[in-house]
């Protein structure tokens, strides 16, 4: 029996006879030849069926295959310099496994809502395939980076009683006879982790009841939240930029095929591996906007047009530092020399992708933190444990959160976050 392989390993089997479990994505036939577009979940390539090389039965079977039917294909691997993939299979035999009904996603163009309604099937197409591979690489590289930097992965709870990023976007759920919320950030728990294990990171789902429909917001998204004890914000920024450059380099190194499927310009991506990234203050950003014709004034938060304009002034991702207190959460540390801004930064991605990281140094003083919690109108009883971290050996510490889908959307150069996650959750979408 021929060796069973995956399409992705075809390069190691040139001129060998092999067998592969595949699905049909498309086909084209003439009197003497059929071209079968095949996928096996590891890659896409072409099968060529020549009438004079196979039995009549096999030639007819090939012509009758329906889109997304599954079968064992047997044949010989050849180089194919015309395709992205570089190899094809010259078919000698076909054994049907599962026939398919009319597949809703045909090779023609479909509208986005139709595709999202069929996301469970759409995942099989080339573009989602490439994006999910890049997502996987970003996840893999995240673990590699933080492991090599000496971080411990620690998992914060998902059911919580606290609201680190403000109370307006909480998903509430019944928790026996009390209310609970789905976590919007694990940060407060990661601060406890940093006091216990020095450098920690979390990687898990977070939830925000975002009522707006934008290209940058999901209601369920994945966040990586590192938190470092004995660390000030400037050192945290260095970790952030090295982390982002590491992710981009990992995708360049390990996802060439996927980048080709997406037509992503690799030279563009290479620019983002150069360090350091530029740093500007919020004050400078406001000035830049005003000069650029925006009617922004000091104290305003940035929407996506503002973030895009700022990032367009730079070739690399840019840190915008020291935002006004009024537009950032209670746990941040105020600047030493002025009382109106925090020691914090957002990292804005190039090419119009906006904020991918938010982070800050944290308030370490018990009384000041208590005051901030009260001023934010939060329920103090939920934060007693958090205040404990300032009661018992409080140290300077900093951390940040990277939105996984924001990073992927930028690296893949997608139009919308919804394509960066297998099953997106948005205000109008809980299915499939
Ligand atoms: O800026 P945010 O709100 O910061 C925090 O949650 C901090 N507690 C993080 C920390 O310091 N540990 O969110 C962090 C990142 C954003 O920069 C963005 O990339 C992403 O999370 N994000 C979203 N991604 C998708 N959909 C949404 N609705 C998002 N909201 C934030
Ligand atoms: Mg933010």
UniProtKB/TrEMBL annotation:
Query: Which superkingdom, per the lineage?
Result: Bacteria
The enzyme's first-digit EC class, named in words, is ligase
User: Do you know which InterPro entries this protein is assigned to?
Assistant: Aa-tRNA-synt_II, aa-tRNA-synth_II, aa-tRNA-synth_II/BPL/LPL, Asn-tRNA-ligase, Asp/Asn-tRNA-synth_IIb, NA-bd_OB-fold, NA-bd_OB_tRNA
Q: Which family does it belong to?
A: Belongs to the class-II aminoacyl-tRNA synthetase family.
User: Which HAMAP family does the UniProt record give?
Assistant: Asn_tRNA_synth
**PANTHER family for the chain:** ASPARAGINE--TRNA LIGASE, MITOCHONDRIAL-RELATED (PTHR22594:SF34), ASPARTYL/LYSYL-TRNA SYNTHETASE (PTHR22594)
Q: How does it assemble?
A: Homodimer.
Instruction: Give the protein name, as stated in the record.
Output: Asparagine--tRNA ligase
Q: What is the lineage of its organism?
A: Bacteria, Bacillati, Bacillota, Bacilli, Lactobacillales
Q: Which gene encodes it?
A: asnS
């Amino acid at each position: 029996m021929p060796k069973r392989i995956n399409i992705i390993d075809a390069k190691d089997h040139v001129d060998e006879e092999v067998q592969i479990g595949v699905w049909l994505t498309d086909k084209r036939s003439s009197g003497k030849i059929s071209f079968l577009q095949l996928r096996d979940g590891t890659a896409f390539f072409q099968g060529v069926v020549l009438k004079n090389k196979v039995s009549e039965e096999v030639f007819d079977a090939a012509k009758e295959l329906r889109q997304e039917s599954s079968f064992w294909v047997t044949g010989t691997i050849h180089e194919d310099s015309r395709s992205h993939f570089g190899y094809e299979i010259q078919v000698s035999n076909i054994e049907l496994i599962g026939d398919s009904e009319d597949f809703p996603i045909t090779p023609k163009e479909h509208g986005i809502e139709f595709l999202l309604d069929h996301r469970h099937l759409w995942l099989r197409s080339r573009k989602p395939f490439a994006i999910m591979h890049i997502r996987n690489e970003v996840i893999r590289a995240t673990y590699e980076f933080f492991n090599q930097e000496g971080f411990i992965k620690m998992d914060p709870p998902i059911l919580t009683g606290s609201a680190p990023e403000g109370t307006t976007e909480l998903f509430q759920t019944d928790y026996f006879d009390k209310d609970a919320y789905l976590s919007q950030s694990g940060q407060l728990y990661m601060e406890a982790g940093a006091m216990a294990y020095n450098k920690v990171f979390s990687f898990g789902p977070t939830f925000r009841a975002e009522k707006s429909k934008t290209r940058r917001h999901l209601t369920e998204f994945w966040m990586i939240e590192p938190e470092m004890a004995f660390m000030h914000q400037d050192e945290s920024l260095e970790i952030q930029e090295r982390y982002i450059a590491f992710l981009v380099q990992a995708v360049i190194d390990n996802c060439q095929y996927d980048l080709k499927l997406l037509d992503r310009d690799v030279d563009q991506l290479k620019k983002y591996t150069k360090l350091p990234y530029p740093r500007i203050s919020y004050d400078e950003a406001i000035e830049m906007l005003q000069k650029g014709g925006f009617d922004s004034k000091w104290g305003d938060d940035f929407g996506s047009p503002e973030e895009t304009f700022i990032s367009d002034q730079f070739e690399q991702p840019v840190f915008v530092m020291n935002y006004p207190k009024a537009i950032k959460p209670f746990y941040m540390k105020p600047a030493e020399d002025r009382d109106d801004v925090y020691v914090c930064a957002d990292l804005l991605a190039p090419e119009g992708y906006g904020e991918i990281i938010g982070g800050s140094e944290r308030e370490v003083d018990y009384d000041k933190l208590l005051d901030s919690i009260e001023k934010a109108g939060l329920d103090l009883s939920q934060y007693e444990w958090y205040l404990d971290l300032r009661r018992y050996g409080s140290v300077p510490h900093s951390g940040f959160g990277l939105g996984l889908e924001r990073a992927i959307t930028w690296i893949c150069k997608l139009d919308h976050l919804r394509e960066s996650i297998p099953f997106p959750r948005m205000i109008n979408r809980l299915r499939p």
